[in-house]
Amino acid sequence: MLILISVAIAPGLALFCFFYLRNQMATEPRKTLLQTFIYGAILTFPIMFLQYVFKEEQVFSSPIIQDVFFSSVIEEFFKWLILILLIYHHVEFDDPYDGVLYGVAVSLGFATIENIMYIMSYGVHTAFLRAILPVSSHALLGVLMGYYLGKAKFSKMNNNYQLRFMALFAPMLLHVLYNMIFTSQQNWVYFMIPFMLFLWWFGLRKVKQAHIALVHLIAEQKKERQ
After folding, report:
1. What residue ranges are annotated as transmembrane (predicted)?
2. Running DSSP on this structure, what letter comes out for residue 25?
């Protein structure tokens, strides 16, 4: 069991380290990031409970609505809600790249618990596919969510409400597309490969943009102190 848990945790830890180490300008407090990860992990249980109840009670007549749309919407909404309520106004959310880190942390908290439960149920042979698809997609969707929240918090324009909405809408839309591809019966791999390549390209582009915004913020702060 310890081996299974270790295998299930490893992808999330590796992905978080990847995004954390890309921030060379500042060091975000690890305690706050750990708390955000724990929030995401705790979030797994009520989300799975709601998914189970809705499925058992057959609230939705179509399995597509249940497995594709409802699952995508509820997962991204609650991750977004945690960030808005507990992190967005936090004193340690003090630069644009922090949004990326907090988005990744809450998403990987959820993805790690989900991965542990899945691998313990279906075996270690599923670990590689889980690492490159669900776990990495959660991390990249967290990047997008955090990027738009970081941009909203430090934007000097009056469009931060639209940006906060984008922080929810963009990951939700891409999550729906991911689930549509993954639940398709035939040839889903041929669609998933280009989708994941796009998701990595788009996510890393947002990481770069968040880093540039951080550099500009530090430059402005230096000018104000002079």
Report:
1. 6-21, 33-54, 69-88, 100-121, 127-149, 161-181, 187-204
2. S
CA dist., res. 26 & res. 46, Å (int):
34
Residue 126 has which token pair? 């599923």
Among the listed residues 43, 112, 109, 54, the one whose alpha carbon sits nearest the alpha carbon of residue 81? 43
* pTM (2 d.p.): 0.93
Instruction: Note the pLDDT tens digit of each residue in 31-90.
Output: 899 999 999 999 999 999 998 898 887 888 787 888 889 999 999 999 999 999 999 999
Q: Where are the domains of the chain?
A: 2-225
**Contact indicator for 131, 11 with CB cutoff of 8 Å:** yes
Token digits of residue 172: 């939700």
Query: 151 is written with which tokens?
Result: 């941009």
In whole angstroms, what is the distance from residue 80 CA to residue 107 CA? 9
CA angle 49, 172, 59 (to 5 degrees): 40
Distance of CA 90 to the CA centre of its chain: 19
Cβ contacts of 112 within 8 Å, gap of 6 or more: 8, 9, 12, 13, 37, 41, 135
Burial class (CB in 10 A: 0-12, 13-18, 19+), 3: exposed
Q: Are 63 and 132 in contact (CB under 8 A)?
A: no
DSSP-derived secondary structure for 55-76: HHTT-SS-HHIIIIIIHHHHHH
Task: For residue 32, give every residue at least 6 positions away whose Cβ sits within 8 Å of its Cβ, in sequence order, or none.
Answer: 87, 90, 92, 102
How far lies 202's CA from each of 7, 13, 20, 33, 163, in Å?
27, 21, 18, 23, 17
